Amino acid sequence: MNLAIAGGTIVDAAQLYPSQLTRLTERLRTICRWLTDTMKQPGKP
Hints:
Layout: E1 2-4, E2 10-12, H1 13-16, H2 20-40
Antiparallel strand pairs: 1-2
């Protein structure tokens, strides 16, 4: 499915809507970044 955006080019609809795998991967990266930043903070346990 192709979509024409006003003032732009024709874009394939698959590029506009991320797949579940892409969303899951981004969510996992966000969680890993948060966990890494949390673990690197100095402090007393």
